[in-house]
Design goal:
Blueprint lengths: L2 H5 L3 H12 L2 H17 L7 H24 L22 H7 L2 H7 L4 H12 L4 H8 L3 H19 L6 H17 L2 H5 L2 E10 L10 E2 L1 H17 L3 E7 L2 E7 L5 E10 L2 E8 L14 H19 L1
Parallel strand pairs: 1-6
Antiparallel strand pairs: 1-2, 3-4, 4-5, 5-6
Helix pairs in contact: 2-3, 2-4, 3-4, 4-8, 6-9, 7-9, 8-9
């Protein structure tokens, strides 16, 4: 078996490791490509291709994360991970755990960790690597890795309940939410929202963005206003899994992506709605709409509708 034949079956695992460390699809793809180049040009023959490649992609991802954190301090507005519609790493036995580990809630919790803690947590808690493999991957002793794992788990525990929920219950509530959302049903939405629900977004300063909205009444009304105006100009509301959780993609009349909404559900209620409208973070999903043009067109349509109403 040549090296490419060894590498390709592991590509999805390597991407999934890197994405959880970085929270970026484009950076994870680059890390996987760099891992392949190192493997292709390596003069040593590793005992285990999986161990060699996992260690390489982890080290590369740690280095990228360190530099990315510096850049993120200058990011305009809130920074969210790039949305991912499907995890390429398929493991039916652990599908639910893997989905929860890449939810927006989980990835944002991982942002609290240092790069080394994050890498250890991902390798150990998500992908069940042994400490000898983790130690080789990050260049620390097994004892140090165990300490990093303990610290990472401690940091994550406080927020863990936010993304550990009953999946069947979540899907049932999500379906009700999407029906009310599509139909512009303010009352139906309001009863599904928690008392402290909030809606926040990531535009990166490159698209229209509302300020954080808090409370069931304002969130329900803003959601209906956005959806109604968008549908009126030919937009389509498409329920989709986003980062393994319930979500929505809004597409313009040409099928281009306007915004994604990731919905966080806990205890039978929607707790948070996170929007991604930064075009740079949506391009990997397909053609991206001109958000400014959509907002202008929707505003004109709303004004005309109001004039006719009078």
């Amino acid at each position: 078996m040549n090296r490419l034949e060894e590498f390709e079956p592991l590509r999805s695992l390597l991407f999934s490791i890197s994405y959880r460390i970085l929270g970026s699809v484009s950076e994870a793809e680059d890390a996987v490509q760099e891992t392949w180049l190192r493997y292709e040009t390596s003069t040593t023959e590793p005992v285990s291709a999986k161990a060699f490649l996992s260690a390489a992609v982890t080290r590369i991802s740690i280095d990228v994360l360190r530099s990315a954190r510096v850049r993120r301090k200058e990011y305009v507005g809130l920074w969210f991970p790039e949305p991912l519609l499907a995890d390429p790493y398929q493991n039916p036995e652990r599908a639910a755990e893997l989905a929860d580990s890449m939810s927006m809630a989980a990835l944002l919790l991982l942002e609290r960790l240092s790069p080394l803690e994050r890498a250890v947590f991902v390798l150990r808690e998500v992908f069940d690597f042994g400490f000898p493999e983790i130690a080789a991957a990050i260049g620390r002793s097994e004892a140090a890795c165990r300490q990093l794992a303990v610290r990472a788990r401690r940091h994550m525990e406080a927020g863990r309940s936010r993304f550990e929920v009953d999946h069947e219950e979540r899907e049932r509530l999500a379906e009700r939410f999407f029906v009310a959302f599509r139909e512009g049903d303010v009352d139906g939405l309001r009863e599904l929202l928690s008392a402290d629900v909030y809606m926040v977004g990531d535009s990166g300063g490159k698209a229209p963005q509302w300020n954080p909205i808090i409370g069931p009444e304002p969130v329900a009304r803003v959601l209906v206003a956005i959806t109604s105006a968008f549908v009126d100009i030919g937009g389509v509301v498409q329920p989709r899994q986003i980062n393994g959780q319930s979500g929505v993609i809004l597409r313009d009349r040409d099928g281009k992506i306007f915004v994604t909404l990731a919905v966080e559900i806990l205890d039978g209620q929607v707790q948070a709605i996170r929007s991604m409208i930064n075009p740079d973070k949506l391009r990997h999903l397909g053609p991206v709409a001109d958000a400014w043009a959509i907002v202008r067109e929707a505003s004109r349509a709303r004004r005309l509708s109001g004039d006719r109403g009078h």
